[in-house]
Amino acid sequence: MSVFVHPPRSCGIRFAIRQPNLVLVHVRGELDLATAPDLESRLVTTVVAQRRGVLVVDLARLDFLGVAGINALLKVRCQAERRNVEFRLVAATRTVLLPLELLDLGRAFSLHPTVDTAMPR
C-alpha cells in the first residue's frame, strides 16, 4: 500500500520596505489554511504599528490562494481601514485574480497589476 505524503506548505513573507508611511511586503508560495494565520498576524501587527500611510502586499509570486488566505487578507484590510492605512494588493496572476473573481471580491481590494503601480506617488 502506497501512502502519499505531501510536503509541508510554505508561505514566504519578506518585508522589502519598512518606512513610517510605507511598507512593502512580498508574499510567495501558498496562502491557505496552514499559512494564512501567520501572514494575517504579521500584517495586522504591521498595520497596528504603522497607523497611517500605505501597506502594499505583493502577491505576484503566489502559487495558490485559498479561502483562508482571502479571509486573512480581508481581515487585514479591515484593520487597515480602521487605522487609516491604505491596503493595496499587487495581483495580476490568474492564481490570485480567479479566486477573488469567483467570490465576487475584486472590488473589496485595491488591486494593482505591478508593484510600481501600487506604490504611492
UniProtKB/TrEMBL annotation:
Residues 20-121 form the STAS domain. Pfam families: STAS. GO terms for molecular function: anti-sigma factor antagonist activity. Belongs to the anti-sigma-factor antagonist family. This is Anti-sigma factor antagonist. It comes from Allokutzneria albata.
